Amino acid sequence: MAGSPSVAVVGGGASGTLAAVHLLHRARALAMPLEVVMIDQYGRHALGQAYSTTDPHHLLNACVDKMSALDGDPGHLLRWAHDRGLDIAGSGYLPRQVYGRYLRDVLSAAEDRPLRVVRRVTGTASALTCDPGVRVRLSQGGHVDADAVVLALGNRTPTAWPHLADAASPRHIADPWAPNALDPICDGAPVLVLGTGLTMVDVAVTVTRAHPDTVVYAVSRHALLPRTHPYPPPSPVPVPIPDGPLGVADLLRAVRLAVKDNAGDWHGVVDGLRPQAQRLWARLTPDDQRRFLGVAARYWEVHRHRIPPATATRIADLRATGRLRVLRGQVLQATAVPDGLRAQVEADGAVRELDVGWLVNATGPGSDIARDPFLASLIAGGTARPDRLRLGLDAGLGGAVLDATGHSDGRVFTLGPMLRGSLYETTAIPEIRAQAAALASRLIEAVTVRPGRAHPESGSSERDEPPLTAPPVRQARSA
């Protein structure tokens, strides 16, 4: 659309889709022409990593009532499902591939051709420049020019596991969410999974259905599995948090007291904490944030990010029949042997050898953004800087990305997992759709005013600190 304002969205998953949808809705309300260029590495526009699964047994980890894509319209997903003949209640859990179709439909419906359109580009962003205009270069060649850009990059790929003699072995699945990554695991050979979190659950569900003889060994430091959503869901319980300076010990004490006062039931307490999580995170000092990541984050995650009852039943059945064996410990090393791998596993204080056919890295999203070549180029060029914990990008209020000097260009924004260092709870649909709705007005202003560089941006706790002095935070790979 020659002459129309344009916004480039780097990333085609839920974060990018929600950003595009709310932006298009805002442009329509203003009767403003707009082109959104959505760039996705694998051409999975609106599906991204989470919702491109083809396994119908991968269910959403939140019920339908909580998963509307539209801020302010909580019943939108349920109406969409019923309009398509799906017999599901608001308390039910849709397959994730169905939710992917929903996001695609919502994105298409947000277009209003010929004035407001989405141009879908398959490619990998390799560089970003903002002088004079915003230009996203693609590693395959070519570029996308725009008036503003949203970095909707989602979760990072798992951190490479360093103890495999041949990391390129076809028996090593380095990223289980890469397209078709789990398809080869169908021969009935044992599978060793690094991690016991949500990704492990998905891997176990898929590979044990692919072959009736498959046994999965899941290993992590604390052998903690995600908890189950109760039915019916309890009401959120208010959790009083003391005013004044807040440390991790104060926070844990308040939570334990709330659980005790709630007759020992933690479900409502965790749900009551969730709306406060971002504010509580901001109240912690940087040292306490690091302390939380080291000692408490995994416990929060297994209680906060629960699995549907049907998935929990499947996992319980696999454990009862010996097809899922959860080991508390760590995998020391793995070497190639004919038709598989031989792993040394330290579990419950003893070292044993396991001969397996496959090794799957299910340790969850990588923690250091500088491992990503595109993000590393932004940091090296001074266009962006990591947050203090190096979990994402440093940004001001509203997701305006801060450069190496702590200023906002006024045209580069982010949302979702890229804000984890500053918000922590920022990876689920309810948080991301609220960010997308707020970001829409910022983007309209950016493409209308088309500001220059070096705009001071409030909301960052690091404005006066050197941008790259903080060491990477080592999170628990899995617990």
Give a brief description.
This protein has helices at 14-29, 76-83, 96-110, 198-210, 248-261, 267-273, 277-283, 286-295, 297-304, 309-320, 373-380, 420-423, 429-449, and strands at 6-10, 34-40, 116-122, 125-129, 134-138, 143-146, 148-151, 172-173, 191-194, 216-220, 324-337, 340-347, 350-356, 358-361, 400-402, 407-414, 455-456. It has 479 residues and is of the alpha/beta class. It has 3 domains: 6-156 and 367-456, FAD/NAD(P)-binding domain; 172-227 and 306-361, FAD/NAD(P)-binding domain, CATH 3.50.50.60; 248-304, no CATH class.
Question: Can you walk me through this structure?
Answer:
The protein has helices at about 15-30, 75-85, 95-110, 200-210, 250-260, 265-275, 275-285, 285-295, 295-305, 310-320, 375-380, 420-425, 430-450; strands spanning about 5-10, 35-40, 115-120, 125-130, 135-140, 145, 150, 170-175, 190-195, 215-220, 325-335, 340-345, 350-355, 360, 400, 405-415, 455. The chain is globular, with a radius of gyration of 23 Å. The strands form three sheets. Strands 1, 2, 3, 7, 15, 16 and 17 form a seven-stranded mixed beta sheet that branches. The longest helix is centred in the last third of the chain and has 21 residues, at about 430-450. With about 475 residues, the chain is of the alpha/beta class. Helix 1 (about 15-30) packs parallel to helix 3 and helix 1 (about 15-30) packs across helix 13 (about 430-450). The chain is built from 13 helices and 17 strands. It has three domains: about 5-155 and about 365-455, FAD/NAD(P)-binding domain (3-Layer(bba) Sandwich); about 170-225 and about 305-360, FAD/NAD(P)-binding domain, CATH 3.50.50; about 250-305, no CATH class.
